[in-house]
Design goal:
With about 350 residues, the protein is of the alpha/beta class. It folds into 2 domains: about 150 residues, 3-Layer(aba) Sandwich (Rossmann fold), CATH 3.40.50; about 190 residues, NAD(P)-binding Rossmann-like Domain (Rossmann fold, 3-Layer(aba) Sandwich). It has a 7-stranded parallel β-sheet with strand order 8-7-6-9-10-11-12, sandwiched between helices. The chain has a 5-stranded parallel β-sheet with strand order 2-1-3-4-5. It starts with a strand and ends with a helix. The relative contact order is 0.14.
Amino acid sequence: MTRPKVCIYAPVDPAGDSHEALIAAGCDVILGTSPASPAALRMLARDAAVLMGATFRGGIMDDALFVTMPELRLISKYTIGVDDIDVDAATARGILVTHCPTESNWGGVAEGTLAALLALLKKLRERDRQVKQGLWRDPMLAGTYLGARQDGYAGITIGLVGLGRIGARVADLLAPWRVRILASDPYIAESRFVLHGATPVDFRTLLIESDVVSLHCSLTAETRRMIGAPELALMKPGAMLINTARGALVDLEALCACLGRGGIAAAALDVLPEEPPRPDSPLLALGDRVLLSPHMVAANAGSPLQVATAWANDSTLRALRGELPRRICNRDAIPRWRARFEGRPLLGRQPGSASDAARA
């Protein structure tokens, strides 16, 4: 049996242990370097049965790429997000897309969101800079108290756009602070709002009533530029925006204009539509009105993508054995995938595999 080709276009395992595990299982592993262009990926992944890697920095994996890979049966992502893939095009061809929503990743995003929120509300950067400049206790550097108090202070309102894994963890982390939490998410059960102490509201109400708006949704055609000039105009003059999800959720030009004229107080952005920003980007001239991070909110000691390699390997080996992998993002592709690949294993089945159990 010919060894199936697995192209790891964006490796995350410097030690190579996960690569060796695939080789030991019978795969021919080809390593790329990130970022790679679509043209480079086409050359690298010729005849590949599986594409594997972190975020593809060379654009979008689309049908123009897939048509050059007639044996491609799986794209196995180390990351949570799949917005670097034309999932509809993959689905149409019966190519499965899997991802790795490890707790170290989405939990890291939630913790990073809370850190950004506190940095803005407590003016940590400004206070640090004042002391280092030889100044002391400027009244303008008073922070914001978050939670409700028994003296009658009502606390602030935090609006979470999306109450999936990350949004829900942010809500849980905020629970002891006794803040009012609003959430907008039309795709989850009502019981989840109750479980995480959030009041369900529509998107417009969330923008109007929140002191802090934090984005925790996937990038889709529906959510692209969901925060633009009209939405920013609905927010309170002293409100703050946090985006640790995807850069293209926000119209950056509209945000810069809004911050420049004092429409909202501040923004914290870990992600941008263009990464890194151009040196002449107006974003870089906004001073303390914007807190920036280089798309590293989930980057903590003990890389979350290292944790994900075992999950991605499992998905890869299952698909190469003709079995359905776990954590499929495009389940609509399953019937087409089964018609193309289920009876065509490229690796021998392992005793006790999921398919064996189903046949028992």
